[in-house]
């Protein structure tokens, strides 16, 4: 899985928070404290589209691209976790270490997310 660079993460954070289609100009305005050039943000957003992190479509005027995350932040984080897990030589040990580091509430959420046990033949 492709990871996101610092500026890519900032742009994705804006898009994830918005939850709606956004133009490059709207994203630039949201990142105004960073003093980024329009062309810089446009280039990064086009790269995010090429990597499959965002979808894009033409606006009603046919000249402006609008962008929307291809998946939610949670799906992206889950993919990062799976990618990190695949890097270990011992997945069970890594999972065990992870399981010991979560809170009781998080452990319960994990239990609830697991499919019910299936009867063994």
From TrEMBL:
Cross-referenced Gene3D superfamilies: 6.10.140.850, Winged helix-like DNA-binding domain superfamily/Winged helix DNA-binding domain
Keywords, alphabetical: DNA-binding, Transcription, Transcription regulation
GO aspect biological process, one term: negative regulation of DNA-templated transcription
Pfam family for this entry, one: Penicillinase_R
One example GO MF annotation: DNA binding
Similarity comment text for this entry: Belongs to the BlaI transcriptional regulatory family.
Name by which UniProt lists this protein: BlaI/MecI/CopY family transcriptional regulator
Gene source species: Nonomuraea diastatica
Lineage per the UniProt record: Bacteria, Bacillati, Actinomycetota, Actinomycetes, Streptosporangiales
